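[Meeting: bench + compute handoff]

Bench side (C.D.) handed over the final construct sequence. Compute side (W.E.) agreed to return the predicted structure before the next meeting so the bench team could plan truncations. Sequence as handed over:
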Amino acid sequence: MTDRLKIATWNINSVRLRMPLVERFLQTYEPDVLCLQETKCPDANFPFAALRKAGYQNIEINGQKGYHGVATLSRRPLTGVERKRFCDKDDSRHIATDIPFADRNLRIHNFYVPAGGDEPDANINEKFRHKLDFLNEMEDLLGATQFPCVVVGDLNIAPYEQDVWSSKKLTRVVSHTPLERERLEDVRKAGPFVDAMRTHIPMEEKLYTWWSYRARDWKASNKGRRLDHIWVTPPLAPKIVDVTVIEEARGWEKPSDHAPVLTTLEG
């Protein structure tokens, strides 16, 4: 019998502030797994009750007060939980869990990569240095991947020209500099992993998951970037039957500046 697994990833930009959006998304799209980033919530204050009421009994979190934070919610059991500490900082940017799929366990890594500040020079910008160091450690971790595995999250880099509204204008802007783009590709290939979004959405098509709050009308200007990603180990790639950016969620009341990305595997 075919197993069908729906995995979503979403930088929610404060889970408590946007719980109505999370509940709406879960009710409307019914993912089996939702990976959240930038939850901005200490573990003791995480909204477990509301999410369990929505049908997600299995919840693993890695949070802190006011900043960062990741969480994985599931309608299936979660085991093998790992919370990796990066760059000798306790800033809650990773959680990994195993979930049953097609008669075996699937490893899901949920990441929130540092944004990197404003200046793309590690010699003068400690935040950019942190981002590069984080990518180095992420590459080491994923280079030891055991099949099968999925990597999701806000990776804070748009790697390809069609992942931004203007590659020429953004080439000196953090998130789309040549160095970041090259390093993210190094990390992806370390697994190796397949870029699930670009496997199902042609490379020549514009593809965004983030639109700045600064735009007066984000939809009309459409100056987006693809900062959120789904990667899979090669044996899983043929099992992906759909990848969709839920762009409408960016237009919901008091939205995150990121849209959820939803993928479906059948195996």
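W.E. noted at the follow-up: Residues 126-142 form the longest helix (17 residues). C.D. will use this when planning the next construct.
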